[in-house]
Amino acid sequence: MSKILEKMYSALTLGAILALVVLTVYHGDRTQSKDYWASFITFLHVLSAITWIGLLYYFNLVQIPMMPKIPADLKPAIGKYIAPEALFWFRWSALATVVTGLIVATLHNYVHEAMTLQPGMTRTIGTGMWLGLIMAFNVWFIIWPNQKKALGIVKVDDASKAKAARIAMLTSRTNFVLSLPMLYCMVTAGLVG
């Protein structure tokens, strides 16, 4: 078992197999139902969102505050190895969260009402959806292009690199701020309307 747990993709595969076993044992007889698949896509949406927002919180609660405290000779390891990998998972989990969220809203027949902020539960979840869309836009079109410059993936002069790092940080911090009302809306939409 320790051999499986030592490798990330092996551990991920084991988790997926265990989830498939639970799916089969508990709900295998329901997989022909549209309602089942709406629930399964919701599971994928939550999994993607945990990854995305977890990384957002890692960047804002750990990496950004710690960077000034890291000795200069160790910073290249963050920029060359850790940050690019974290940003890969960050941007793709953002996209997966948006896509699965829109599928869930479509399968439950409230995508139009939510996106047009109709009164009731759909206004609350629609607000969360719009905040999530803004955040995903920020990830793909502001944070990632600027991080590529800041990390040296795209070659720019030192002044442009510093400016890009600041823009990426401030946009990430904006997403951190937006994540609180977004999560509130997503969690409470079905509970309090």
List the helices and strands and how they pair.
Layout: H1 2-6, H2 8-27, H3 34-66, H4 75-107, H5 111-115, H6 121-150, H7 158-192
Helix pairs in contact: 3-4, 3-7, 4-6, 6-7
Please bin the fraction of helical residues.
Answer: over 70%
User: Judging from the principal axes of the Cα atoms, what is the shape?
Assistant: flat
**Distinct helical segment count:** 7
Give the helices and strands as they follow along the chain: HHHHHHH
Can you tell me about this structure?
By secondary structure, this protein is mainly α. It has helices spanning 2-6, 8-27, 34-66, 75-107, 111-115, 121-150, 158-192. The longest helix has 35 residues, at 158-192. The chain is flat and about 55 Å long.
Write a brief caption for the model.
This protein has 193 residues and is an all-alpha fold. The chain has helices at residues 2-6, 8-27, 34-66, 75-107, 111-115, 121-150, 158-192.
List keywords for this structure.
193 residues, single chain, mainly alpha
